[in-house]
Amino acid sequence: MSETALAQSTIERVIQRDRLVVGLSVLAIILLSWTHLLRMAAAMGSSVSQMSMPDMPGMSGMAMPDPQTWGVADLVSLFLMWAVMMVAMMLPSAAPMILLVVGVYRRRTGRGARVLTGAFVLGYLAAWTAFSAAAAMLQLVLHRAAILSGTMAVRSTMVGAAILLVAGIYQWLPIKNACLSHCRSPLAFLTREWREGLSGAFVMGLRNGLFCVGCCWALMALLFAAGVMNLTWVAAIAVFVLVEKLVRQALWFSRVSGSLLFAWGTYVLLATLGVK
After folding, report:
1. Pairing of the two strands 51-52 and 60-61
2. Quick one: 215 exposed, middle or buried, by C-beta within 10 A (0-12, 13-18, 19+)?
3. HSE (CB half, 13 Å, CA atoms) of 214?
4. 22-66 confidence digits (pLDDT tens)
5. Contact 87, 103 (CB under 8 A)
6. Consecutive H or E run containing 1
7. Distances (CA, A) of 129 to 54, 79, 124, 209, 234
8. Helices 113-144 and 3-47 sit at what angle, rounded to 10 degrees?
9. Are 55 and 271 within 8 A, CB to CB?
10. pLDDT, tens only, 72-125
């Protein structure tokens, strides 16, 4: 075997080891996030009885105290709930990009590939952390306006129908497809957005995260209709996002799902209005 071939073989073995370490680390973070969500749901369920959202079968969530009495600590807890939930939901779909990034960094820089990949992951999660802060603030506003129930779901089936309709329409919009194309084409994204160094890795991860937020924010809004801590829906949306990024016919998949969401929203709206 030539020296070049031997060196290439060595690099590939190191890359596989890096990917194993990084992959296991990502898996551990995901499992810890889901464990935390399950504990939160159990704690909330034991302290306050579950309630179902009227006229929207299958949509129920965990109950919570009156937001009018919340302090700063309660708001921080709400933000952390959203942040952990976004890690649990979005990190699995980002795994292919993360594993590609560590391999590229290993080939380009040799040492420090895992640290640079960590900076990329932090940048990615920073985008979803910002989304979590906005979602937590929106949830507080909706609670204080009595739009959300104690189960953290919209009280009005009209509002629930509107959320379904908006999510369905967004699946058809060009901006959705543009953001999705960045998320489901890791190599193309890295070719366009590559940056060197720790700050470059963070910015690259942040940009990737922002594209993912642009792709998935309307799907996350469905949690306000289903119940923010309805873990069945949290898991279902997480699986949907993963499939949407991995399936070959992504545009077709998005539009079919959008049509189904729109049809569901229309049905709920017409049922609420008493139209047969």
Report:
1. antiparallel
2. buried
3. 17
4. 999 999 999 999 999 999 888 776 654 444 434 333 334 445 555
5. no
6. none
7. 31, 9, 9, 10, 17
8. 20
9. yes
10. 777 888 899 999 999 999 999 999 999 999 999 988 877 789 999 999 999 999
